[in-house]
Amino acid sequence: MTLTKRIIPCLDIKDGRVVKGTNFLGLRDAGDPVELAARYNEQGADEVVFLDITASKENRSALIDVIRRAADELFLPLTVGGGVSSVDDMHSLLRAGADKVSINTSGIKNPDLIRQGAEKFGNQCIVSAIDVRRNDNLSDDVTIISMPDGSECWYEVVIYGGSKQTGIDAVLWAKEAERLGCGEILLTSMETDGVKEGFDIPITSKIASEVKIPVIASGGVGKLEHFYDGFVYGHADACLAASVFHFGEMTVGDVKKYLADRGVPVRI
């Protein structure tokens, strides 16, 4: 049986509002998260991701309120992340109505958190969000990837919204996150985020080939072809986008029709 490919709108949330930037910077308001999510529900989205990008504890109540409202009004899976640093945090989000919890910075700082979450709530509830940036300083202990222009680089994991380098090889970390028990990887390339020139295919396809769990491609959609490229050349199981949906440049239905017409299996 062929698994259908998923289209996932992502809502970056700050102080209870949806915002969107470029390369993680220059944020602008995009609306109420539950209203936007309801629109995507009607358009046939397969899931919705809520990311609390400020992730400060004083904003947690605002995020919990958003999740509760969304869970009451929507009938599609919700993935929630941002500032998740303990099993108690996961429990609070899941109890509020989230179906999955996304762990990013805290998983790098405390890898055992992934294992703890998977053991308590199940692998299917734990998403490892990995933000990456290209690094041209090659060495023997990194996964060297050939780029379309013939150059070579490796991809480094970055944390704290892309502001801090870790020295960790993204491919090796994806495999370790899988070993620890996460059920899915949400991969975002800082180079392509918000630029609208397409997903970062080299790292997406590499990680997809190295792990057995689903990989969500994130960062860079500007036109319909980019979704096709993410699935066909990036070998992603799902493609995530934000601004093209938030600002009405295309609908989830537009994307699915485009893909279906080109032989990519999607749920219509």
From TrEMBL:
Catalytic EC class: lyase
One record GO biological process: L-histidine biosynthetic process
Annotated keywords: Amino-acid biosynthesis, Cytoplasm, Histidine biosynthesis, Lyase
Any Pfam family the entry gives: His_biosynth
Cellular component aspect of the GO annotation: cytoplasm
Main location: cytoplasm
InterPro entries for this protein: Aldolase_TIM (IPR013785), His_biosynth (IPR006062), HisF (IPR004651), IGPS_HisA/HisF (IPR050064), RibuloseP-bd_barrel (IPR011060)
UniProt catalytic activity: 5-[(5-phospho-1-deoxy-D-ribulos-1-ylimino)methylamino]-1-(5-phospho-beta-D-ribosyl)imidazole-4-carboxamide + L-glutamine = D-erythro-1-(imidazol-4-yl)glycerol 3-phosphate + 5-amino-1-(5-phospho-beta-D-ribosyl)imidazole-4-carboxamide + L-glutamate + H(+)
UniProt xrefs under Gene3D superfamilies: Aldolase class I
E.C. number: 4.3.2.10
Tagged with keyword Amino-acid biosynthesis: yes
Classification via NCBIfam families: hisF
Family stated for the protein in its record: Belongs to the HisA/HisF family.
Assembly and binders: Heterodimer of HisH and HisF.
Described function: IGPS catalyzes the conversion of PRFAR and glutamine to IGP, AICAR and glutamate. The HisF subunit catalyzes the cyclization activity that produces IGP and AICAR from PRFAR using the ammonia provided by the HisH subunit.
Protein name: Imidazole glycerol phosphate synthase subunit HisF
Species whose genome carries this gene: Methanomicrobium antiquum
UniProt lineage: Archaea, Methanobacteriati, Methanobacteriota, Stenosarchaea group, Methanomicrobia
The encoding gene: hisF
